[in-house]
Amino acid sequence: MNLDRDLDLDLERIIRAPRATVWSAWTDPSRLERWWVPAPSRCRVERLDLRPGGAFVTRLSDDGAEFVPHMDACFLAVDELERIVFTNAIDSAWRPASPAPVAMTAAITLNDHPDGTHYRVVVRHGDPEARAHHDKLGFAEGWGTVAAQLAALTENMQ
């Protein structure tokens, strides 16, 4: 996957769990809720229709009581055990969106690694300003935190 340093942000991690386990943490709503937002915030999966054109809708709670909109996106590609691509530039009803804080397309790839799974996220932006804004908002910290939560969950599922 090509990376454009002016437009894209990326994150890589080796997760010490089989690829199928990491995949199930992405595709099972009850597991996705356990790692998708940085703790102590909590996630609720409203819709997870894993197919091209399918909905990806989550809600977020900071107090565990009130859940507010978090992600309203559309899957662009789903290749079992290998790749998930979604965008929030199109919402779950296939309408053009102007999401806050930034419109993006995220590609998650999973590959076998001698220690488990090579997990890679590439987040693409429409212009350098959007990329810089996402970076300034804490892309590395936020997406890094949830990748660590994903690793902790899957490494303990074995």
Please give a structural write-up:
The protein has 158 residues and is α+β, with helices and mostly antiparallel strands. 25% of the residues lie in helices and 36% in strands. The protein has four helices and seven strands. The chain has helices at residues 19-27, 29-32, 128-137, 139-155, and strands at 8-15, 42-48, 55-61, 68-79, 83-87, 105-113, 116-124. A seven-stranded antiparallel sheet has the order 1-7-6-5-4-3-2. Strand 3 and strand 4 (68-79) form a beta hairpin.
Helix content: 25-40%
Question: How many beta strands in the DSSP annotation?
Answer: 7
Radius of gyration: 15 Å
**What is the count of helical runs?**
4
Strands ordered across the widest β-sheet = 1-7-6-5-4-3-2
Q: Give the CA-based shape.
A: globular
Task: Give me the strand/helix succession.
Answer: EHHEEEEEEHH
* Separation of the first and last Cα atoms: 29 Å
